[in-house]
Design goal:
Spore Coat Polysaccharide Biosynthesis Protein SpsA, Chain A, 9 strands, nine-stranded mixed β-sheet, single chain, alpha/beta, globular
Length: about 290
């Protein structure tokens, strides 16, 4: 199977996301870290880790596409695995994440996903989606595993400029569900999502303290389910200078807003240049 980590110029978080992959109880994978036209030292960071782990490979697009759809599609083109799992470069997995999803796929699913512990500034951590929820809702990519042949058959990832008012993640899940039926929801929480879109200027400051703290917490917890329950009972996460990103960004998260417009606002909020996304290798899709 293949794990894909799309990344862009935030090398400080890569050792933590990669470590959470290396900690998996299911170890039969290749890990492709795919840069969206990275110009920082991400290549050096990944190649340093790859020197002691032959499962790691670095790829980098010559021109950035402005969305993880670009590196995700490029990673699929280079993948060797029959199954594809995604991990955001600033997100983390619990050790049994791959094990659980592989078992679901082996039972006949084309798409499976777990719940995640969502960690937003200004809010207490919470589980999303609710355990066992099914349907065409938005799903964090770090929760998903998809058969590679299913991805090819539906044409891979589309960009926000192509998906109307729904985000590319929702668009992909809907196309897969229309072709193969609804995805399988696991009744477990097996990932931690730290949304960059709710962290103002995070691509300019490029911190990694949250990833370091949560990875340490994952590794120290004898029971991940108990850790999730404890986290959900904790006070709201700290904000930056009193900023409330959830309230600030609420208007652009409305279902009527075009995905491309939403993406432009979110890119600006998290400190990235506002550029239109560029479809990549569209002629490659059947």
């Amino acid at each position: 199977m293949t794990v894909l980590i799309p990344t862009f110029n935030w090398s400080s978080v890569l050792p933590y996301s990669i470590a959470s992959v290396q900690d998996q109880t299911f170890g039969e994978f290749e890990l492709l870290v795919v840069g969206d036209g990275c110009t920082d030292d991400s290549k050096q960071v990944v190649e340093h880790l790859a020197a002691t782990d032959q499962r790691l490979r670095w790829l980098n697009l010559v021109h950035g596409t402005g969305h993880q759809a670009g590196p995700n599609n490029e990673g699929l083109r280079h993948s060797r695995g029959e199954l594809i799992a995604y991990l955001g470069h600033d997100d983390l997995w619990f050790p049994r994440h791959l094990e659980g999803l592989v078992a679901a796929i082996d039972r006949g699913s084309m798409v499976a996903y777990s719940s995640v512990l969502m960690v937003n500034p200004g809010q207490a951590p919470f589980v999303y989606p609710p355990r066992g929820q099914t349907g065409g809702e938005w799903l964090p990519p770090c929760s998903m595993m998809i058969r590679a042949d299913a991805l090819w058959k539906v044409g891979g990832w589309r960009f926000a400029s192509q998906t109307g008012t729904v985000d590319p993640e929702t668009d992909l899940i809907r196309r897969l569900a229309q072709r193969f039926g609804p995805p399988t929801a696991l009744p477990t929480v097996s990932a931690i999502k730290l949304p960059a879109s709710y962290r103002r200027d995070v691509y300019r400051t490029r911190p990694c303290h949250e990833q370091a703290r949560w990875l340490e917490r994952i590794r120290a917890a004898p029971d991940n389910e108990a850790m999730v329950r404890d986290a959900c009972a904790e006070p709201p996460q700290p904000t930056i200078d009193g900023d409330d990103p959830v309230a600030c960004l609420a208007p652009v998260m409305a279902p009527s807003v075009r995905a491309a417009d939403r993406q432009r606002v979110l890119r600006a909020y998290k400190g990235l240049e506002v550029e239109p996304d560029q479809p990549l290798h569209q002629d490659q899709w059947p």
